[in-house]
Amino acid sequence: MKMLTFQIRARPLNRLNLKQGRRDGSPVGERAFTLIELLVVVTTVALLALTLLPALAASRVNSKAYQCLENERRLTTAWRMYAIDYQDIVPAAFTLQNNFLRRPNWCTGLMDWNPGNPSNWDPRQDIMKSPIWRYVGGDASIFRCPADESKVLVSGTLQPRVRSYSMNSAFGVGGFLNGTYDPSQHVWKLYAKISDVVYPQNTFLFDDEHPGSINAGEFSTACTGAQPSDPPSAAKIIDVPASWHDDGAAFSFADGRAEIHKWVGSAIKPPLTDPSPRLNYPADDSYLDAQWLATNTTVKR
Questions:
Q1: Does the residue 221 lie in any domain?
Q2: Which CA distances in Å does 299 have to 11, 178, 199?
């Protein structure tokens, strides 16, 4: 059988084509930027930078909001896992000293600005003793919003405070639900079990709290006076939520979801650098915000 052999010859490169010059006689390969072209490039790069910088800054803010939501989702999941292990009973937002609720606080300790108070800066004091600690994978960072910049000066070193989140007071004694402090009120429903919650999708569990407002583990809301049928002048703000996220705060809900809620009025947004904002005050131009909080806290008995 004859073997057929094929030969392929490469055509020589046309050197004249490679060296082809422009009409003015200068070689193509030696062309340089003109001053005008260089200025156009520099201007274009500068405009791109001006366009991208706000987007990059916004993405950094959004990443903190996303992480905050993820923190609250994880805390909520831990809270629900606790309930699975304890016949649907959930930890309390806050109990009185005699603990007549017979449930542990989700987080003990009182936060303030005292460097001698380890509840502010040492997670071993309260965070790691939380009844939901075993369900969060030993991660103390999820108890703090990444946008929370509050710190205390401890032995000459600034230490970040350990907690940014509080729990809906309806899961505790609900002392201010009726508008004034009354831990024995019977107007608004309290929740000791997940199955007790009437509208899980509209009952917040954890929220960002203003660093100057946060103290115990509960977030107090006045539901009386803040219903859509009430006059705006009757609405009150008891504890102050945070506004880290583009004038809003992160909330998780009893059904497991989480969202950023943005505030409408100014009275609910004191400066986040204020170490002691007023508490328990008329909502004024934030009455719609107070109504939103009340609507998403609990329902009447």
A1: yes
A2: 88, 11, 9
